[in-house]
Design a protein that fits this description.
Blueprint lengths: L8 H4 L2 H4 L5 E3 L14 E4 L2 H12 L3 E6 L19 H6 L12 H19 E11 L4 H12 L4 E8 L15 E8 L10 E2 L9 E2 L5 E6 L19 E2 L5 E2 L15 H10 L2 E8 L2 E11 L5 E2 L4 E2 L5 H12 L11 H11 L5 E4 L6 H13 L4 E6 L3 H15 L1 E15 L2 H4 L2 H14 L12 H10 L7 E7 L2 E14 L7 E5 L5 H6 L6 H13 L14 E4 L3 E5 L5 H5 L4 E2 L1 H17 L6 E6 L1 E2 L3 H6 L2 E5 L2 H6 L1
Helix pairs in contact: 3-5, 3-16, 5-6, 9-10, 10-11
This protein binds S-adenosylmethionine.
Length: 635
């Protein structure tokens, strides 16, 4: 597979490994509900560090990643500041922010994205997928990078979202009105997307059987392409009609045709009672013609299109943000909530863990809360935003979405939505009458066709309730007629409910700093990181009867950490792995495993010192990993 070459690639290739682990520090006052690092999170900090901090708890656990990174348009003001230890890249820091004049801006963007994408992949679950919005500035380079990091076999699709509803520059011949949404899976064989609900499909099932089930009958004779006996010889055979005469497929011009099903298929219909004979007149004679009966699906669906022109645009998402904050443009590039809802519908996991590490105005959290409120789902979100507005914009929007907010703006309600087929299009007058009827029923007789029946109008306005709308708007978009009631409102938008914890990133856990005792992380922070680096797994809630020093269990071992962020303790004999401790650990592990019907696992113990021989360790099924404090003790 061809690989992309860019300046700095060799330095960022494994940069994610050198990024220090920094624990998440909850700021209870800025969240909603009790601080809980396993619940919804909004993290203020550089996402490279934040993603690393999430690994111990969430590696392999995120089901959906949506990111909307800087598009590298040349005027976004983003900076390259990852502190990669290479002279050329240190020089890059002096030419921040990255603007359109910068000849290396594509290299810088790729260097910025590479380690983040590697970490995002580590966080993704086996059934998970990543969705990335971009435009023509970087989409082609991003695909090459994603092919390399995720594997080109895991490319799912590139969707186009129509982001503007009128050209944004009338002086040029061509102006892009769409963004891309790239989708890759962690493992395409495990990802299961849902098709789109398409109620319009039910229109084709116009008949009802005695039990009320909707169905349609389709001629068994094939028509059109490949419909001759010579095209499908095995599908030309006799079927006895209700009078016992053999019927062969025959076109009206006398040519021998073929059935749309083979002998086995026809037999299956006969057994199921879905082969239907109808009496028809042909060339002045009554003949029997076979049909197959198809019942309407319980849930009508169709594959999602890759062009998303039916979603709100940037203009509408900015208007939504204006409504929430009650002020003019607080953020330039919010995505519509509906775009993320569309992705969540496709992913269709009501318990999904959803991560957005370029959070901006917090649209992703808003979409998650909205989806949960709508379907009772248990989705969770993790947002990361590096700018200072993480609190005042990102988190504040989420607070308002949860608690509700005073709102004044335009509200729309769909009153009629119909797919207009060519046949329906020919009945334009009927549709116009329907629209007029809606206007009258809504007490907007003035807007209805002046030529309509006056008696009907008078009746409608007499019976109409209080006016619900200021006006009725109708339009046809992509072959769908929509009639919407529009009203100006000033009211309280209902809160969607929910909670979140606001966090920052704590001091880096650097094992070499333990040597000097200079920086001692909390037990949980060090434990989470050691557990992840030793096992590649994430810490789970402890069992109720967990003894002191227990971190958790991996597939083949129990992991322990003898540690307190206290110099005196670390230098004392209390911090050592001694025989009685090893025995107690082994006994507890044994009982715990046997109680769950599992074979006893081994043990890995992190501690500053041990007073056990290698043989004693082996006898207790134990591996010992020294904390750097052991060295300190000897200094
Ligand atoms: C295009 S905006 C995302 C907009 C968002 N989708 C919305 O609907 O509001 C990109 C965001 O990523 C943030 N960002 C860029 N680089 C970052 C980094 N290294 N760490 C954290 N956030 C970053 C920017 O501050 C900006 O808010």
């Amino acid at each position: 597979m061809p690989e992309i070459v860019f300046k700095g690639k060799e330095y960022v290739y494994n940069h994610h490994l050198t990024v220090p682990y920094r624990p998440l520090v909850a700021d209870a006052a800025k969240g909603i509900g009790p601080a809980d690092l396993s619940g919804n999170l909004i993290i203020h900090g550089d996402n490279l560090h934040a993603l690393k901090s999430l690994l111990p708890r969430y590696a392999g656990a995120v089901d959906l990643i949506f990111i909307d990174p800087p598009y590298n348009t040349g005027n976004e003001g983003w900076c390259y500041s990852d502190g990669v230890n290479s002279p050329i890249m240190k020089e890059w820091l002096s030419t921040n922010p990255v603007d359109g004049e910068d000849m290396l801006r594509h290299d810088k963007w790729l260097c910025m994205m590479w380690p983040r994408l590697v970490l995002l992949r580590e966080l993704l679950s086996e059934r998970g997928s990543i969705w990335i919005t971009l435009d023509d500035n970087e989409v082609h380079r991003a695909r090459m990078v994603l092919d390399e990091i995720f594997g080109d076999e895991n490319f799912v699709n590139c969707f186009a979202w129509r982001k503007v509803d009128s050209p944004n520059d009338n002086k040029v011949a061509v102006t892009p009105d769409h963004d891309y949404v790239l989708c890759y899976s962690k493992d395409k064989s495990q990802v299961q997307f849902s098709p789109m609900l398409a109620l319009g499909i039910l229109d084709a099932y116009g008949s009802k059987d005695a039990t009320g089930r909707a169905y349609r009958d389709r001629l068994l004779k094939k028509n059109g392409k490949n419909s001759l006996r010579t095209d499908r010889p095995t599908m030309y055979f006799a079927i006895p009609d209700p009078d016992g005469n053999d019927v062969y497929p025959m076109h009206d011009n006398g040519e021998e045709a073929c059935w749309a099903a083979g002998p086995k298929g026809v037999e299956a219909h006969l057994q199921a009672g879905t082969l239907i004979w109808k009496r028809k007149e042909k060339f002045g004679q009554q003949v029997w013609e076979p049909y197959t009966r198809e019942y309407a699906p319980d849930i009508p669906t169709r594959p999602y299109p890759t062009i998303w022109a039916d979603l709100p645009t940037m203009r509408q998402s900015k208007a939504m943000l204006r409504d929430i904050f009650g002020t003019v443009d607080v953020f330039d590039t919010p995505k519509p909530v509906e775009l993320i809802e569309r992705i969540m519908d496709l992913v269709n996991q009501p318990d999904a863990l959803i991560l957005d590490s370029f959070a901006g105005s917090g649209t992703t959290a808003h979409a998650v809360l909205k989806a949960n409120a709508k379907d009772g789902g248990q989705r969770k979100f993790i947002l990361v935003e590096g700018e200072d507005y993480a609190d005042k914009l990102t988190a504040e929007r989420v607070r308002r979405a949860i608690q509700g907010y005073a709102w004044s703006g335009t509200q729309r309600e769909i009153l009629l939505e119909e797919k207009i087929t060519l046949t329906q299009f020919k009945k334009a007058d009927d549709w116009l009458k329907k629209i007029d009827a809606i206007k009258r029923a809504e007490g907007l007789a003035d807007e209805a066709d002046k030529g309509a029946d006056l008696v009907e109008q008078a009746q409608a306005s007499a019976t109409s309730k209080r006016k619900r709308f200021d006006k009725i708007e109708s339009r046809i978009d992509d072959g769908v007629l929509r009639v919407e009631g529009v009203r100006r409102v000033s009211q309280m938008a209902d809160g969607l409910g929910g909670e979140f914890t606001y966090c920052t990133l704590g001091e880096a856990v650097e094992l070499d700093k333990l040597l000097s005792g200079e920086r001692l992380p909390a037990f949980e922070a060090l434990g989470a990181w050691l557990f992840y680096t030793a096992t590649g797994g994430t810490l789970q809630p402890l069992p109720k009867n967990a003894p002191p020093h227990y971190l958790g269990e991996a597939q083949d071992k129990h992991v322990w950490l003898i540690y307190q962020p206290d110099l005196r303790f670390l230098k004392s004999a209390d911090a050592a792995l001694i025989l009685s401790r090893a025995q107690a650990m082994q006994q507890w592990g044994h009982d715990h495993d046997v109680a769950r019907g599992q074979p006893p696992k081994g043990h890995l113990v992190f501690a500053p010192a041990k007073y056990l021989s290698n043989k004693q360790l082996k006898d207790h099924g134990m591996d010992y990993a020294p904390l750097p404090f052991a060295l300190y003790r000897e200094c």
